[in-house]
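dude i think i finally got it to work??
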Amino acid sequence: MMALLQRISKNALFYISCLYVASFVSNTFFFFCKNLCSSRLRRDKGVTIETTLPLVKTL
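look at this
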């Protein structure tokens, strides 16, 4: 019974760390993509972040 609990806790730790890494990677990718889109659109005059964010969400 104790070995089973230890195995479950190790697996839970592994899954939690995987989820943490995945969320970190997706946040980094979203931030990079948002900056890329906003810097590309900033050349056009009058473009604000409000027009950039929906574009990023559709990607």
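Residues 24-59 form one domain.
im so relieved honestly
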